[in-house]
Every structure is written in structure tokens, then in C-alpha cells.
Amino acid sequence: MEKIFIKYLTNSISSPELDKLSKWAEEHNDENEFETYVKINYAISNCMSEYNLEESKKALLKKIRKDKNILYRLNFNSFLKYAAIAILFIGVGYIFQQNFNRKDKVVPTEGMVTLQLENGSVEVLPEYIEESTGNLKEYKVSGTNGEGSTVQSKKLVFNTLKVPYGKKFKVVLADGTKVHLNSGTSLKYPIGFINGKNREVFLNGEAYFDVAKDAKNPFIVHTNEVNVRVVGTQFVISSYPEDTNINTVLVEGSVGLFKKGEEFSVESASMLDPGHKATWNKVEKNISIEEVNTSDYTEWMNGKVVFNHMAFKDILKKLERHYDVSITNYNKQLDEEQFTASFDTETIEEVLSAFNINYSIDYQINDNEILIN
């Protein structure tokens, strides 16, 4: 329940989870049962010097209304149930804050975008969402000039952005390079680049890069086994540790791939043209290049999930990241079966139902755990 409550407070809860939270609140209506969860609420809101009953009530009710707009399938009666939950939390929060020790506050980070500073401290980043459109806003690194020129720095200081499953995030680096991070991704980057040296970042997961042009300071993305060097271009890299392949898809411009530990040279690097994908096989240690439809590899930025002749085992990994669920497949005969499909606003329940209708796939859903029989 704690994870669900955190999701509620951070606007990342799903409709089934809201139903579960409502039912739980109705069954546990004494103050002691709520104490642990109110502590989370107060920790997240600890920017207030004192717990303000009216302000908390307004904030939580505003969140409820936002939930109602996003989860448009909920009916009016459900909305009243969630408003009742908010009032219960507010009342207990007012009582609990008297004994809350700010010196020992712990802000939960599960399910949240975090920024780890070079000194090891971790900050929780807010949701950068444009309310009118629902699109992600850009988080700008301190010192970003946004004009594509390298920020002067005497020493490289690295921060690491971590995006959990079920979330996406956009960041603008110090040189103006824009990076759109997919679910389950981390990016290590310097808060400022040094003029005369390569602009280097380290990726674990999947990201779309729109690199600011700077011919004197090439941009290099490091993954576990291969690196990608560019001057100014747009491309996608997918380098999840659990995947067999590392994929680089070039949208425009030019990039060169070279093995980790090697120096870049045009002669030895694998150069990529727009509309092509380079695949590094981690087992065979080689690169293959093919022409592709680049939109299949960029639609995730628009909230879509696209499978194009993809093996079922890889589809499950993609669904886990996108929907923040855990999937166990006991039907191993399906692992290598290939499927083509595209989903937009569908829930995980609707996606699995579509597979069941078209391919007779049997499954069970228990909270955030899915079993395929």
C-alpha cells in the first residue's frame, strides 16, 4: 500500500490503483492505520514550516480533480470516494505533524525521478508536465545557455538522472543538447563541459538525443559496450542492460559507432546514415546495419508503444518499463514468437486483453504483477 500511496501523492497512480486505495481507506478508517502514510505525505510537503490544514486540503483536492481529468473513465461516485480519502489523510496529517521530526525526514524516492549529485546526495525532481497539453517540460541543467555553445568549465562535475519504470523525462544539458529519457533509464552527465574536449555522457537505458552543433567539441554517448560520436544530430540509443542488443537509430545528421576502449576514427568506426539502425550484438560482439522506419523507435516520446516484428520476450520487457509492472511468462513457447502492434492510450489491461483476443494468451493480474500461463 505504501507504494500505491506514494504514486497517489506524486500523480502517477493508475485507475485500478485508485480503486484499491479507496477500498483500503474504507476498511482501515482509524487514525493509527493512516499514520505511516501521512508521514510520507508530510515528508513530501515538508517545504511548509507548519502543517496548514486548509492549504493541505486545497492541494489534495486539487490533485484529486487532476486525477479525475486524467483518468476520465472514472465515474462521479468514484471521485467522491477519492475526495473522502483525501479528507481522511488531511485530518490525520494535522494531528501527526505535532510529533514529526524534521531532522530525521526521509523523502521516498521509489517511483520518482531522482538526481544524484557527485557528492552522493539524492534529490527528488518534480513532475515537469505542461498542464494544458500534458506534454513534458524540459528540465534545464544549471548553467544551460540553450544556444548550442559549450559552457566553460575548469573541472568536470557529474550528476546522474534516474528515471523509474512508468515515467519519462526531458533534460537540456549545459551546451543546449536536449535529451528525452525513456522509462527505466539513467544518464550521467557533467553540469558543465570543458571547451576543447569531447562532450561526454554515459547512458544506461534508452534516450533520444538532439545534440547541439559544436564542431570543435564532438559529443560522445557512452554505453556499456559501444560508444556513439556525433557533432550535431538527432538519434536514439537503446542500451538496457537486460537486452541482448544495443540499438542506435539515426533520425538526421551523421553518427559513428566504435567499441568501448577504442579511439574514434572515421576509417574504423561504423558510420550511420539517416533512416538506418545499427545493432550491436552483445553475445557475438558485432555490428549490423539496416534501413528502418525511424518513427517506430521514436514514438515512445509521444506515449506510444510500438512493436514491429518483435519477439514476445522483448515485448514483455518493453511493457514492464512502460507500465511499471512485473511480468512473469510461464509459456516459454511464446518467447521467440514475433508480433507487430501499436498501442497509444491503452492500459496494460487493455494491451493484454488485445493479445488474448488475437493470440489466445492466458494471463492473470495481481496488483502490479502479471502472470502469463
From TrEMBL:
Residues 305-372 form the Protein FecR C-terminal domain. It comes from the Bacteria. Residues 161-255 form the FecR protein domain. InterPro entries: FecR, FecR_C, Ferrdict_sens_TM. Keywords: Membrane, Transmembrane, Transmembrane helix. One of its GO terms (molecular function) is sigma factor antagonist activity. The chain crosses the membrane at residues 70-96. This is FecR family protein. The lineage of its organism: Bacteria, Pseudomonadati, Bacteroidota, Flavobacteriia, Flavobacteriales.
